Amino acid sequence: MTVSILIFLPVVAAIITAFIKNGAAKHVALFFAVAELAVAVFFLSRFVPDASTQFTVIKPWIPKLGIYFTAGIDGISMVLVLLTTLLVPLIILTTYQHQYKNAGAFYALILFMQAGMLTVFTALNGFLFYVGWEAALIPIYFICALWGGENRIRITIKFFIYTFAGSLFMLIGIIYLYLSSPSKTYELNDLYNAAVTAKAQSWVFWAFFLAFAIKMPVFPFHTWQPDTYTEAPSAGTMMLSGIMLKMGVYGVIRWLIPNAPLGFLQWQTLAVILSVIGIVYAALIAFNQKDGKRLVAYSSISHVGLIAAGIFSWNLEGVQGAMIQMLNHGINVVGLFFVWDIISRRLNTRELANLGGIAKVAPQFATAFLIITLGTVALPLSNGFIGEFLLLKGVFNYNNWIATVAGLTIIFGAVYMLRMYKKAMQGGTNELTVLFTDITGTEKLVLGIICVLVIVLGVYPQPVLHISEAAVKNLIDTVNAKFVDAAVNNIR
Amino acid sequence: MTTLIILSVLPLVLLYFGLYKANKALLPVTVIGLLVALGFAVAEWNNGAQPIFTGMMLFDNFSVAFSGITIISTLLILLLSKGYFEKISSNVAEYYAIILFALAGIIVMVSFYNMVMLFIGIEIMSVSLYILAGIRKNDFASNEAALKYFLMGAFSTGFLLFGITLIYGATGAFNLEAIRNWVIAHPREIDPLFHTGLLLIIIGMCFKVGAAPFHFWTPDVYEGSPTLITTFMSTVVKTAGFAAFLRLFSACFAQISDFWAPVLVVITVITLFIGNITALYQQSFKRMLAFSSISHAGYLLFAIVALGAASASSVLVYALAYSIASIIAFGALILVQQQSGTDSFDSFNGLGTRNPFLALTLTIAMLSLAGIPLTAGFIGKFFMFTGAVSHYKIWLVIIAVVNAIISIFYYFRVIIAMYFRTGEGNTLTVPAYYTFVLGISALITIVIGIYPDFISNLI
How many CB atoms lie within 10 A of CB A244? Predict the structure, then answer.
């Protein structure tokens, strides 16, 4: 069993689903997504949580240029594979109440995107990584542009150009590393050993950083994000925020810092500061949002800013915090966007001003919403807590003052999330919200699963932390050894 | 060699067919003839060829590979021609004959081993194209295209010939090997005759491949010519031009790249920006494709700027990817134009519902032209960028990346029109020939995009 089955099953599924006529497409897609989850769980059961790469596949692809189909799973990849395979079936379930035009194409694109993202999370060859990176972008562009809201054409092209631009610069960086690598291949281990001077690493850092910073997004590369999240169909928003932005975070951990360690050292402070600015800036904007979906979009920038700050601090707590927070943020943000999808589908509005009192008429919905909200504001014993705690500790190890500013996220997050909850759910009902019907069927199922995950991961996060710990530690040690080498060389 | 003989005899046969009004037989005979020619070309593969006719021609793997892809592209284009030429002219046989004459010239262009043969090849091709551009005798635009093309082409031929003469004056040879030996023997010497000749050859070749600032004929000629002829010009002819360009420079002038590479770098940058930025402002799909072909000439120039062992396979992959995608684009344009009467972007509105198959193939073509992974166009760009970065021309690659981003705007305009805008017009039916050609082309685009090894290993 190698990871190629994990990558190619969704491709096959996408091709099959594309030919299914409207009604049955969602069932077929769900079937394949669950099958994919089963494969991932099987891998997890066989996974040994040490620093090694497992289930590896190596096949020649364009051997003349050192391009191989190399993919494998280590602790870092495992968490993201779980995140992807877990969220995709949930996201497909959230669409059960929608009637999409050309449903076959819609679900095929979602599955194809899943294949692209799993390629990114498991690729150990620079070329394969880049191909997966772009292969995930094309489907989401079409999902947003075909099934999105009114301004979708202008906004999605902006989104596409932004991300495409970033990734092309990354491509130059990858090619440059390849040409400097000892045995002239795109294999990740070969790229890690590329002989690149500190000065050249400085711009290699930027080539990668642009791609990842745009994807996450880190301030000031975030301007595409709120519009795109708002205009995309809710399933697309969930794919983007729940999984796709983790491609950027993962890229920083696996591709940016180890490939250009000396470049990273030169720009580390700036990267941490930009991330922290993003936390505060997005939170301040989130205070004043009138549209619920848009508010969640800004909250996502804020939370990702903290994840980025944790990684750029580059210590075990920070990176481990980022690992678990990626999983938690994925679960929570999908829950939040689903909540707003339910509200906007029933009431045809997402304006906070028009809402209120829903808790009175829909108690089950209100409970689920509250649990997810508390998970997002990182209440202890909810899943967000352990992640934020580790991340802040990581940033604190890097710099006290920056960590103090980053810590504002705890207060700010609570303010805007609880304000959102209060405006939407509490107070008196009005003539609109009084008609709100409580959740049923698949809605109950999805929100139930999410709530259980929020609580379980909050109370007992250790298994997840354990998966990635050895791999993260190993990676950090490798990079730190390079810092030491460079310092020693400097003294000589 | 057999390929060349077949391609020279076949048009004569076709002209006789035309004389006896056997119009129905034209296409089948052409297709069979081309397949036979292709077969003979492939048979010369890896034969360890030596220069023949006292060093005039050399049918090496380079020549076989480029003969192969030009013949295949011509085949695909001619398959689209069923029913097309009959509509615009009564002299159908001439179309087939002249296209094949041009193809014969192209085979010479990719197989020359002597500057004289290069010149003869270019002339056979160009004269045929002048006629093809103006073949709609009563159409104003077609006449303008032919005149413009002829005047500009004659000029550039003059430059080329002058350059060849000066190089002959300096080296005393037309033979590529002799010129290379002269270059190696005079490494540091600046010979006014030789270097002026080299620059004039660059100008002449840049005219032929439509690189800026020698591109002014391209848009008008492409727009005025019948669409299928435009397809032929922008794919097969361009491929041949670059093959000849590369063959000449890698055989003769590789050692003194310090002298001419800066010139070509400037030309490349100008070509990229002019092609892309002008394409951005076009309202006509056909004109957009004309300008996009200029920008692709810029990417193709990368292979010559970063001349090396991998240049030939880079040009091969890029040219094939570009040709195939362009054939899809022009094929779709012909169908849409027939229905709506215009070639503006708006005529593509709602094509996604009017004909999903056509929209899908055109989307694949646009993604390939834009260089999105998993399509052939990406592999072409990837090879070009790799070559340039390996020559430490990183700034050039960054400029190319900026241009690739600009190109997204106009390629995606078509996709947006097809899927996200609603258009009037009923469902559009695609003839069987078109389905075949567009389907095959889309398939080739994806296959090369996923597994380029079989084509990039040819040379």
Answer: 22
CB contact at 8 A, A59 and A51: no
Helical packing angle, B238-248 and B61-80, nearest 10°:
170
pLDDT score, position B6: 92
Q: How far is A176 from chain B (nearest CA, A)?
A: 7
- How far apart CA A121 and CA A133 sit, in angstroms, is 9
pLDDT exceeds 90 at position B307: no
Q: Which two tokens stand for residue A327?
A: 């999983």
Q: Tally the domains of chain B.
A: 1
CA dihedral B263, B267, B270, B273 (to 10 degrees): -130
Q: Is B43 exposed, middle or buried (0-12, 13-18, 19+ CB in 10 A)?
A: exposed
Q: B45 with B64: CB under 8 angstroms? A: yes
Q: For A46-53, which contacts have Cβ atoms below 8 Å and span 24 or more sequence positions?
A: A46/A1, A47/A73, A47/A78, A47/A467, A49/A75, A49/A466, A49/A467, A49/A468, A49/A469, A49/A470, A50/A75, A50/A470, A50/A471, A51/A75, A51/A470, A51/A471, A51/A473, A51/A474, A53/A124
Average pLDDT of B170-176?
89
Kindly list the residues from chain A whose CB atom is less than 8 angstroms away from the CB atom of residue B394. Answer: 172, 176
Q: Which position has the token pair 């396979």? A: B313
Here the tokens at position B266 are 């400037």
Q: Best residue in B280, B389, B414 to probe A by mutation, most A CBs within 10 Å?
A: B389
Average pLDDT over residues B277-299: 91
**Half-sphere exposure (Cβ direction) of A115: Cα atoms closer than 13 Å:** 21
pLDDT at residue A189 is higher than 80: yes
**A416 close to A423: Cβ distance less than 8 angstroms:** no
CB A31 within 8 A of CB A17: no
Q: What residues of chain A lie within 8 A of the CB of B385, using their CB?
A: 171-172, 175
Contacts of A168 (CB under 8 A, 6+ apart): B401, B404, B405
Distance CA A160, CA A400 (A): 37
For residue B124, what pLDDT is reported? 94
Place of tokens 């108690």: A363
Only one residue has tokens 């944790």, namely A310
- The SS3 of residue B175 is strand
Would you state the pLDDT for residue B348? 87
Instruction: Answer whether B389 sits within 8 Å of A157, measured CB to CB.
Output: no
Which residues are A58's β-sheet partners? A70
Single-letter code of the amino acid located at A19? F
The alpha carbons of chain A give a radius of gyration, in whole angstroms, of 22
> pLDDT at position B448, please?
92
Residue B427, SS3 per DSSP? coil
Q: Does the complex come out with an ipTM higher than 0.85?
A: yes
* Token code pair at residue B219: 């848009």
How wide is the angle at C-alpha A422 spanned by C-alphas A421 and A424, nearest 5°? 65
Q: Which domain holds residue B179?
A: 2-456
Neighbours of A423 (CB within 10 A): 18
Spatial separation of the C-alpha atoms in residues A366 and B23, rounded to whole Å: 77
* Helices A261-287 and A383-398: angle between axes, nearest 10 degrees: 130
Percent of chain A scoring above 70 in pLDDT: 100
DSSP label of B253: I
What is the rounded distance in angstroms from the CA atom of residue A29 to the CA atom of residue A106? 10
A200 interfacial to chain B (CB closer than 8 Å)? no
DSSP string, B302-316: HHHHT-STTHHHHHH
pTM beyond cutoff 0.90: yes
The answer on pLDDT for B134 being more than 90 is: no
Instruction: Write down the pLDDT at residue A103.
Output: 85
Considering only the beta carbons, identify the residue of B398, B405, B409 that sits closest to A172: B398
- pLDDT for A482 equals 87
Total number of residues shown for chain B: 459
Please state at what angle helix A152-180 crosses helix B376-390, rounded to 10 degrees.
40
Q: Which DSSP helix (H) or strand (E) runs through B46?
A: none
Measured in whole angstroms, the distance separating CA B309 from the mean position of its chain's CA atoms is: 22
Q: Please compute, for residue B254, the number of CA atoms within 13 A of its CA located in the half-sphere on the CB side.
A: 15
